[in-house]
Amino acid sequence: MVQHFYLYIVLSCLLFAACGERQTETFVPDDPAAFYSYYPLELGKFTEYRVDSVVYDPSVGDISLRDSSVTYVREVLADTLRDNTGALLYTIERYERADSTDWSLKAIWTCAINDVGAIRTENNLRFLKFIFPLDRRSAWDGNLYIDTNQEIEIAGDRIRPFQNWFYEVDSIDVKASVGGFTFDSTLLITEVDETNAIERRLSRVRYARGVGLVWREQWILDSQYCNDTPSPVDCNTKPWQDKAEKGYILRQTLIDHN
Questions:
Q1: How many domains does the chain have?
Q2: Non-local CB neighbours of 21 within 8 Å, separated by 6+ positions
Q3: 219-233 confidence digits (pLDDT tens)
Q4: Which residues contact 12 (CB under 8 A, 6 or more apart)?
């Protein structure tokens, strides 16, 4: 099921070059701690999301949809602990449910803020979600602690989702509407946006001040469609959602928070 898979979801000269192409205007907060408000850590804080997921399954022979589903997710900052270096971590209790069913605890993850930036660990995958300080030219290796050749299993097939990720700030301190909410200050980050003949990798996230993550979209798709002989005439124009053979599309939207 998609909800079980979702528990798994879930670089320097090149980064420097990418920074040089970005906007030159810099966001300077009155208080340096204002950066932290995009990643608030407070015991008892919760966020709830609707997660729409599509998983592709190549095992049936043709390009086909295996599963489309809606899952509801609730994340609660429930406790604190110290790691083996003495650093303070917050535990995330992650609950899931289908519509009109009870919440079920699915995982306990961790998150933290340190001198480098905001850290989130999911199923032993440690992500550097963003760095401090931030401006509109910020770019960094958000998968610094992850083996980029690591594979995950989707619908019984193996896929490498983490190659060529370069996190970049698209906008910061910008008003935006997400779901039924309007936020005065949001931060939009593109974590990866890469396409070639056989792979589509897209991951974008939006954070709101005082709330944290409010929206995410990911496309992790593979296809051999363009490798057919002869090559299809619509190889480069056929939409990825139509030619994908394995992987997933995921959209996560905030529906409640405190």
A1: 1
A2: none
A3: 999 998 888 888 899
A4: 141
